[in-house]
Amino acid sequence: MSGGEMSRDRFERGLLRVLKPLVILVLFVMTAFPFLYMVMLSVRDIQELILEPGSLWPRAFTLDTYVDVLTRQGFLTFLRNSAIVAVASVACTLLISIPGAYAVARLRFFGRRQVHFLFLAVYLFPAIVLAIPLFVLFTMLGLRGSLLGLIAVYIAQTVPVTVYMLRNYFETVPRSVEEAAAIDGCTRLSTIWRVVLPLSKPALMATGLYAFMIAWNEFLFALLFLVDKRESWTVSLGLSQLAGSIEVPTTVLMAGSVVLTLPIVIVFFASERLLTEGLTAGAEKG
């Protein structure tokens, strides 16, 4: 390598060392600032906000907005409903996806190579296309206004992608480990339970978090099926009601937004390591 090439390489490395933290800082500020501003608004008094709308840091912090949004606006009930829907959706999605993904990854059957693409073909249809038929069907079945019906819709939404994600991960599990379990007398189901699932915890966390975020944040089907029954509303539906009311102060609306966002943030950071491992390993081929 000539002297000119060495100096250019040294310059590029130095430039990358300088730009890397700057780019990370800019991206962090762009991501964190809206959430920080939302939190700051949620703990401000509405009179102070009217007098000093451009001020970011409040003179005095107040939690009255959270008391208002959780009690008078009914968000405690909405949180309970969202938690029921999200947890049930995650549990049922994984219960269906694990054997389905394992079958596609390990078993030999006609159309095996095409079946996961057929799963993903569901996402070619916009949600609004399915909304009206589902509305009519659930009305006929008496499930409109029921959390059970909403859970069924979310399961149908998330199963195709979770099968695809888990299938990619299961293919990275060495076959020799499963063969050793079979030699020890394990059946196919016990092999999945005792061998495959413990090795697949990162992928299970990633797919579970994906299903949880879909069920927690989804709005269209919640509006369609639950709008007539306020006691069954989810958090996203309750927040929409706050946003559409001119009587609700901006600070209370921001408190509702924090209540909607905070559980996802907590779950994400609590499972960040397993989530990262699950996403990267699921993209690899063993």
From TrEMBL:
<feature type="transmembrane region" description="Helical">
    <location>
        <begin position="83"/>
        <end position="105"/>
    </location>
</feature>
<keyword id="KW-0813">Transport</keyword>
<protein>
    <submittedName>
        <fullName>ABC transporter permease subunit</fullName>
    </submittedName>
</protein>
<dbReference type="GO" id="GO:0055085">
    <property type="term" value="P:transmembrane transport"/>
</dbReference>
<feature type="transmembrane region" description="Helical">
    <location>
        <begin position="203"/>
        <end position="226"/>
    </location>
</feature>
<keyword id="KW-1003">Cell membrane</keyword>
<dbReference type="GO" id="GO:0005886">
    <property type="term" value="C:plasma membrane"/>
</dbReference>
<feature type="transmembrane region" description="Helical">
    <location>
        <begin position="21"/>
        <end position="43"/>
    </location>
</feature>
<feature type="transmembrane region" description="Helical">
    <location>
        <begin position="246"/>
        <end position="270"/>
    </location>
</feature>
<keyword id="KW-0472">Membrane</keyword>
<dbReference type="Pfam" id="PF00528">
    <property type="entry name" value="BPD_transp_1"/>
</dbReference>
<dbReference type="InterPro" id="IPR050901">
    <property type="entry name" value="BP-dep_ABC_trans_perm"/>
</dbReference>
<keyword id="KW-1133">Transmembrane helix</keyword>
<dbReference type="InterPro" id="IPR035906">
    <property type="entry name" value="MetI-like_sf"/>
</dbReference>
<comment type="similarity">
    <text>Belongs to the binding-protein-dependent transport system permease family.</text>
</comment>
<dbReference type="InterPro" id="IPR000515">
    <property type="entry name" value="MetI-like"/>
</dbReference>
<feature type="transmembrane region" description="Helical">
    <location>
        <begin position="117"/>
        <end position="141"/>
    </location>
</feature>
<keyword id="KW-0812">Transmembrane</keyword>
